[in-house]
Amino acid sequence: MSNKNKIIIRVTAAIVTVVSIYIFAPWKAAVYYFYPLPATIQEQVDNAVNWGLDGIIVYVQKQDQEGQFYTSGWHNRDKKIPTAPDALFKIASIGKLYRASAVAKLVARGDLSLDKTLAEYLPALAGRFEYADKITLHMMVSHRSGLPNYTDNEGFSWAENTIGTEENLALVLDTPADFKPDSDYGYSNTNYLLLGRIMDKVLGYDHNQFIQAEILTPLNLQHTFFSVNEVDSSKLMSGYYVGYPDDFKALDQGFVATAEDVGIFLRALNDGTLFTEKEQAIYMSIYVYEHTGWVIGYYSIARYHKDIDTVVIQFVNTVGENTLIFSNVVYDRIVKMLSKG
After folding, report:
1. N or C: the chain end with fewer CB closer than 10 Å?
2. Read out DSSP for 231-263?
3. Residues 87-131: pLDDT tens digits?
């Protein structure tokens, strides 16, 4: 991108910020949180669109019942195509649940060790990351490695870059650690980029093939993919940033799935059917059972609510300004409605 275009984007961003302060102001989200709950979840998702979100998909699966879908707004705003329950969506960091599950399975079968270090698995990087000989696999999975997050680097742009590439990794090579290994928690996408490399190395093939064979296929998840390049783009929900006309769907930024597929996976992760007893014990020691995901144009929430034995997945295709706060409020209101029966 030229310097001229970058200047135009920055100036436009400043104007957009001013205009959007009122539309998605934090105080509006706070006020909305206390609004009376509507009679139905469908009314709630319709209200969310009326308040400014472009499109929303909610999947609710309670106990052993069939999943229910609630949609509103646009699948594609420019073409006026309404949202569809079976739309594909970029689930971003929710994908870490799948990769952490793969790590647990590989540790259980002895292919990986949680105590081995980054330097042992990837010796070529031993001199490129501070404390590489002290950072264990366990620390990487649980975000306690201190590895700097490449998506926080000034050279990374969500609006321009794919994720998980060698170019991403190069941004943080030979940079100081955020903290000493295991002395703190620091969410870092670099951890999972490197975990992918480590799994590739021990397997001798792409770890996504392992995830396909050991997780997706057994759960019959036929609508989960590793890249936008694997899908029919017309089935992928468009993604928007407040105030910009651009559709960010073409950027390749990780996992793509339907809400139902994510819900089925999350149920299996939480009820233990995804794992053997040994794998379950390992997973419990390394990672979480719910996640959110954010890439430009897409925000997703995947949680299991044990008190009501219900999985709730929410996809929103509008980000920027305070839409994340508002989207979380919408999600919380839906869970409140479900809790009330």
Report:
1. C
2. S-GGGBPP-EETT-----TTS--S-EE-HHHHH
3. 999 999 999 999 999 999 999 999 999 999 999 999 999 999 999
- Helix boundaries (H) for 93-229: 95-108, 118-121, 137-141, 166-170, 189-203, 207-211
3-state secondary structure at position 55: strand
Question: Going from the N-terminus, what domains does the chain have, and what CATH number goes with each?
Answer: 3-339 (3.40.710.10)
Distance from C-alpha of 287 to C-alpha of 114, rounded to nearest angstrom: 12
Q: Write down the pTM of the prediction.
A: 0.91
pLDDT at 4 (0 to 100): 40
Torsions phi, psi of 74, nearest 5? Answer: -110, 135
Q: How far apart are CA 61 and CA 217, in angstroms?
A: 20
Q: How far apart are CA 200 and CA 198, in angstroms?
A: 5
Cα distance between residue 51 and residue 41, in whole Å: 15
Q: Where are the beta strands (DSSP E) in the chain?
A: 55-62, 68-76, 81-82, 89-90, 224-225, 240-241, 256-257, 291-295, 298-305, 310-316, 318-319
| CB of 222 closer than 8 Å to CB of 235 | no
Q: Which residue type occupies 246?
A: D
Handedness of CA 12, 15, 17, 21 (dihedral sign): negative
The gap from C-alpha 25 to its chain's centroid, in whole angstroms, comes to 24
**How is residue 96 written in tokens?**
């870490």
Nearest to 163 by CA among 83, 255, 225: 255
User: For the purposes of burial, counting CB atoms within 10 Å of the CB of 57, is it exposed (0-12), middle (13-18) or buried (19 or more)?
Assistant: buried
C-alpha dihedral, 114 to 118 to 119 to 125, nearest 10°: 160
Q: Please name the amino acid found at residue 233.
A: S
